[in-house]
Queue: 4 jobs
Job 1
Amino acid sequence: ATTLLAAALALAFGVLRAAGATVTRGELMSARNEHVRAVSGFLRSRIGGALPMVFALDPRSGRSLRFEGGPQSLRFVAELPAYFGRGGPQVHQLALRETAGGNALMVEFRPLQAGEAGPPLRAPEPLAQGLRRFELGYRTLDAQGRWTSWQSRWETPEALPLQVRVRIADAGGEWPELVVALPLANAVAGGAQP
């Protein structure tokens, strides 16, 4: 009877331990999914709200900079909601940086002052950490009105792309691909697009 009782207790403890591990895994997956949704929502609202406003002049070419986009960084102007700080048009900079905890997607805001980016409101903050991949792509329409192929670098900084693609992966795997439309991309030069 004692042996049977010990075996039953060992089985019960094993079942409880397995159930606890399953709950923990479920909570971790839920937290990761929530984080992915929050970061994706932030990127969609910030990039999608890009304004065709000049934030700097290229010292070499003299061109007005309205949107700078590289394979792992981008810079543009968008309205900053008041709950982030001072509100109003702010230069947004998103970039992948190496940190002590691995690669992190950092975000920085600078007020737009007389057509130039002012000093940062605060130090860059991590939006997502432990990333294995952060990849940006840009596209627009060609002269015939067809979509161009995705470019890893935006070559027309005086205009906004029509779409920005964001690909992210972390230790948990690939995030859902994010394609953001920029509704105000045609607002420069009377709707002219490269």
Job 2
Amino acid sequence: GLAGFNGMQGRSLLPEIETGKDHGRGTHVVEEESQRSLGAMPAPVRVRSLLTDDWRLTVYQAEGYNELYNLKDDPDEMTNLWDDPAHAAMRGDLLLSMVRESIRSVDQSPAPKRRA
């Protein structure tokens, strides 16, 4: 029954355990920070992915390649829609969502004692 400490980013999974349903925000940001190269990617590999029920958007630090997949229509992620003009609005919406999730997950601890 205790409140989490300031800056705690986790949350209780008890609602999922009790009901078997996802009670989260519906989006997840996955961060990859590698010290080694992966395949043709130069080291270090720095990647951010946003996952929703229907989409995966992945942005690589190295310019020239990013990914956008409609998981509902393409669950095996065979067709990269990143450069498809018909999906530009969705790409923008997902990028904004990724930025907001990233801001939300910034460590806020310790709590400031005064305002700057």
Job 3
Amino acid sequence: MPGVIFAAKELRSQGYTYKEICSYLGEKIPKSTLNGWVRSIVPPPFYKEKIANLVHSNIKHVHKLALIKNKELLDKRLDAIRIKNSSLIQHVDRAVAILILSTLYWCEGAKYPSHNGIRFGSSDPEMIRLFITLLRCCYAIDENKFRLTIQCRADQNAKELTIFWQEITKIPPTKTYKAQIDKRSVGIPTQKLSYKGVCVIEYLDSNLQYELQFLGRSLGSIESISIMKNQIK
């Protein structure tokens, strides 16, 4: 035992932590016992910085573990929400679909008179897929009236992004405009690798634009809200 105590003191004088001392000696020494052995030993000048780095590293590790745990909890909550509401989609008829479509347009679509004709943009593939699917399902659409424009950053591959959004929208190359590059992004790397730029869908029909814009805005009227409150009860 005296040899172990001597070794522990020597290691402490070299800047070893309690954990490192136990690991080096291959002994499970209680912290209180080890503290009694090396209490009089003054660690080297670099010891405080070493401890600070260890604390910082431990905080980062704990934070990473917390993020993983939080994601697992969130995934479970989202799964429960999906299961609970999975049957709602079965109740979507044409009337409901038109209201969803008009609400989307009211939120994200270009409004008359600042723009003439349907213009809807988003960087979310699911949002774009939902909008264009509802548009095609709810109305007698002339596919020749569609136009597609991709807005992206300077360091992105415009050709690849264009193909990606063409597959999402099913709008052919013949109806696709040249991609628009954001000049403000030149020399600034894209941080979010999953970002696919902004997809802008145009449909050259001002009458349909008026209808979606009117329906969407009318949902917020006092009369519409009153009707919905009574219907939902």
Job 4
Amino acid sequence: MSSTADALGAKTPRNALLILGARTVSRVIALVMVLVMANHLGASGYGRFGTLVAYSALIGVVADLGLSTLFTREAARRPDQLGDYLSTLIVGRIPLVLAAIGLLTIALWQAGLSSLILPGALLLALSGYSTMVRNSFYATGRLGLEVVAILVEIGMLSTLIFVGARIGASVSWFVWSYVGSYVASITYTVVILQGFGIGRLRLRFDLALFKDWVFAALPLAAGFLLTNLYFRADIPILQHFRPFAEVGWYQLAYKPFEATQFVPLAVQAVVYPLLSVYFASAPDRLDRAYQKFFKVLLMAGWPLTVTVFVLVHPLGRVLHLYPQSEPALRILAFGIVFLFINSAFTAMLFSTNRQGRYAWATATAATVNIGLNLALIPLFGYLAASTTTVVTEAVLSLAGWWLVG
């Protein structure tokens, strides 16, 4: 186990830079494509697309139950078992995915988006499987292969979105575009896993292992559900009280804010397996690695907060945001620094088997978020949603600081 820690530790700085570079390129391209799509569809059409994505993210937790994150941790500790773990999870998640699709169907029907049920169901299913199989690269430190996966996915997505905008496509085309990108991503990953011998997939299902992992992952699932609630619940609430156009204004403001999240998530994806291994085999290195991780994220997040707040109007013109989106983005800028440091708290709690504490932290944040949104959105609309997002991130930071300490 100590050799695994040494190997991952040596690769971590290089891998972090590699993934950060790839994520930067992909996020820039993705943001451009979202702007193309949003300006093509208009605020109302983009609001419908954003509502579907929000429901898919919320209900997608049911399809995964935190198993993808648990897989990354356990496969990093026992890479020789990766193929068996992944084979069991691929089969075991099928009934979970079907249950989630049923819930999504009900949600989209009541929101007046029944025409998007089929592509939305495939989006939910394939996005989860794509994340899970690609976590194999993070667990084994094979981040060069993940870079290619990122480029395959964004290449397919940007091509389909560009074509859709050129031909005047409807909302459903763009949902199918995301489905196509996940198909490309999964196909590439499975071929690479088999071809490089990273994990041999076969028709195998270990019921005992799956049961143990489901119980172990339940706190993770609770945490992810609550995280998605405070990240996404504002969209269904806003859509219930306000027209789809206002959802579109808020969603387009949210995109630049959300785009900054790729930095902490990219670094977290690389550092999380390392912290997991250190916790199991080299605890003397754990706290030092975490402190460095936290400081890097804080030093990156604060300048971004200031930059976005000060330059929101020029950014709005460059990014072709809706004029109504700029006030929301100025408010959201205050949440960027909290968004960054929360990744450090999350990685530390997960890697040290304290996922139960993370669930409590996100429960607190979700309660604050939903309560404030229900109280304020009927009065102040999308600007209330923006303010509540910042308050929620700050609450989660305070809870994370206390729980990690």
